[in-house]
Amino acid sequence: MNIESGLSFREATIDDLPELIALFANDAVGGHGDTTDASAKPDYECAFAAIRNSPNDRLFVGIINREVVATAQITFITSLTGRGRKRMAIEAVQTRADMRGKGIGAQLISYCLQIGRDHDVSLVQLTSSNKRPDAHRFYERLGFEKSHAGFKLSLKAAPAST
User: What is the pLDDT of residue 152?
Assistant: First the structure.
């Protein structure tokens, strides 16, 4: 498959939701409790609406032959530190399992970085699970540096995985 000519990126639409859910549910390492069970659909629809309605969030999909093969979400953050420095967080980066290793993820990150540049962002940050050493090498190859320790604290239990 010629990825270069067939890959495009665009903002996600509600019609992409089933493919996005399947992409996340297929992630055995993430442990986010994602599932294709129909009972979870309202949760995903609510989250999608919140992202679409937020002026600071954007959700993208990578498309080949009208199929979702990758996704990433970006969030713009204005901080008082650095005299109002604009930042961008990249979250929920996923490439479909059968499409990994084809350069799709690198092109998706490049797409997100260009949007950051277009919005005068001075710093891009992301987190990656300690369980993903391959992802860490991937981000380092793209120029990201391990510069901070990340911490998380769950305030609410994740929905049960089915």
Answer: 82
